[in-house]
Amino acid sequence: MxxxxxxxxxxxxxxxxxxxxxxxxxxxxxMTYLARELxxxxxxxxxxxGAVFIGATTSLSGIIASATAAWQGQAGLAVSNSLGGIxxxxxxxxxxxxxxxxxxxxxxxxxxxxxxMSVQLMLLLCILLVAFNLPDxxxxxxxxxxxxxxxxxxxTLKLLVDTHERxxxxxxxxxxxxxxxxxxxxxxxxxxLSQLVLRFALCAAAxxxxxxxxxxxxxxxxxxxxxxxxxxxxxxIAVTTSLPELVVAVTAIRMGxxxxxxxxxxxxxxxxxLFVAVSDFFYREGSIFLAIDTTERVWLGSAMLMNTVLLMGxxxxxxxxxxxxxxxxxxxxxxxxxxxxxxxSQALAG
Length: 350
Hints:
single chain; mainly alpha; A middle domain of Talin 1; about 75% helix
């Protein structure tokens, strides 16, 4: 693949980039239906299924993209893909909110699990913020923050499971609040569990391979077009490798699985922070935390701000804002547009 892209034209790289994006979108839809069946069949719930199984597997393309970029010495591309992907996926909730016409999505998808996942994401982003500002500390070219990030992710997953099984807070159930199905044996949930897992794994494998193709194409486009690695990683690659989250969210909303939709985005964002830790292991020129520049810091700040606004929306639960979307969706959109415009102007000025 690498040799084919190196010897081929920019047109070939763009074509493969688009084809891989379509593959991600197609298998993302199939994964959504399988995920809801698994959520009920296993009793784990939509929020946990969206956060872990969907969030992790739909992020395969992104994590492969970041690891590939880091292995080839593209630190900015690897980290920007992670943080830009978090910002892009949070933006996808705005699109999902527009599609859900009954009420503001953050109002209807109220659950303590979704709020817990937002707090989890903020914790992981804060760890990255601290790590980006620490002096040169590494062991075998790996920053200690990478290990801390993984441990924090696993521990907060345990808290998420506890929150689902023994919630200490419950949202006020009002007209418009959508509950997730609890009973096993609902229509379409009678399939053998092993078959569901196998089909889910096959879809995840297809998404992962497509992510590797996208990463390879993105690196070639950076080298040949002269585009900033921060812009290419944070916008083009991040958005394309995040297509599964968009497809899953839209499909879940059309199915009425609102908790799954929000859990997929927010839980996937938490998993995306691990891209930086994985990239740190693959980056052989030292700690990747010390190789980032202003662009990656801007993406981090943008992701933190967007997630804070989202958490505020989940807690405040505005029923209707502008049309059917809440003010948090408008603010998230403005933050993302402002970030892209700022980074674009910086790239042009440089």
